[in-house]
Input
Amino acid sequence: MKSEIESINEKGMWILVPRPKDRQVITSKWLLRRKLNPDISLHRHKARLVARGFNQVASIDFHETFSPNLIITSLRTTIGLAAQLNLIHQIDR
Output
C-alpha cells in the first residue's frame, strides 16, 4: 500500500483541496490481490486504491468524465493528419 501511495504522489494524480460545505466526500477503498507465478507460488502482493464514485451526481459533483479508450480510427486519422502537416519524421512498425 505504501508503494501505491508513493506512486500516486509522484505522478501528481491528486491534489488535496478543502471540501465544499454542500458536497459529500468521495470515499475510497483498497483492492488487494495476490499475484501468482505460473507454478502457483506467490509472486507479490498488489494493492490498488480506487475511488468509490457511485454516490456522485452528474452536473453536481462532476462536469467531465474521462475514459482512456483508444479508437483505432481516431488514431489513424490523427497520424494521417500529422503526416500531411509534416509533423512526423519517422514511425516504426
